[in-house]
Amino acid sequence: MSSDNKKPGVPGAWDFQSPTRRQLLIGTAALAGAAMLPRSAWAQAFPTSVVNTTGLAVTDTEVTVGILHSVTGTMAISETGSVQAEKLAIEQINAAGGVLGRQIKFIQEDGASDWPTFAEKAKKLLVKDKCASVMGCWTSASRKAVLPVFEQYNGMLYYPTFYEGLEQSKNVIYTGQEATQQIIAGLDWVVREKGAKSFYLLGSDYIWPRTSNKIARKHIENFLKLKVVGEEYFPLGHTQFNSVINKLKLTKPDVIYAIIVGGSNVAFYKQLKAAGIDLTKQTLVTISVTEDEILGIGGENIVGAYACMKYFQSLDNPNNQAFVSEFKKMWGAETVIGDVTQAAYLGPWLWKLTVEKAGSFDVDKVAAASPGIEFKGAPEGYVRIHENHHLWSKTRVGLARLDGQYDVVYETADLMEPNPFPKGYQ
Amino acid sequence: MFMEYSLGDLGSIFAMQAFAGLILFSVYLLMALGLAIIFGQMNVINMAHGEFMILGAYMTYLCSHLFQSYAPGLYDGYFFVAMTVAFIVSGGLGLIVEWLLIRHLYSRPLDTLLATWGLSLIMQQTFRSVFGAREVGVELPAWMMGSLPVTGSIEVQINGLFVMVLTLFITGIVALLMFRSRWGLQVRAVLSNRVMAGAAGVNTQRVDRLTFGLGCGIAGIAGSAFTMIGSTGPTAGQLYIVDTFLVVVFGGAQSLLGTVFSALSISQSQSIMEFFMSGSMAKVITLLFVIGLLMLRPQGLFVLKIRK
Amino acid sequence: MYELLTRNRNLELLGIILTGILIVVALPLALDIFRLNLVGKYLTYAFVAVGLVLCWGHTGILSLGQGVFFGLGGYCMAMYLKLEASTPEATKIQSTPGIPDFMDWNQLTELPHFWVPFQSLPLTLIAVFAVPALIAFILGYALFKRRVGGVYFAIITQALAAVLTILIIGRQDFTGGINGITDLRTLLGWDIRTDSAKYILYFVCCFALLGSMLLARQMIASKLGRILIAVRDKEERVRFSGYDPALFKVFVFCFAAAVAALGGAMFTLQVGFMSPSFVGIVTSIEMVIFCAVGGRHSVVGAVAGTLLVNWGKTVFSESFPELWLFAMGGLFIAVVLAFPRGLAGLFTDQLLPLIGRKLAGVPAGATPVLAE
Question: Per residue in B193-216, pLDDT tens?
Answer without folding.
Answer: 888 888 988 888 888 899 999 999
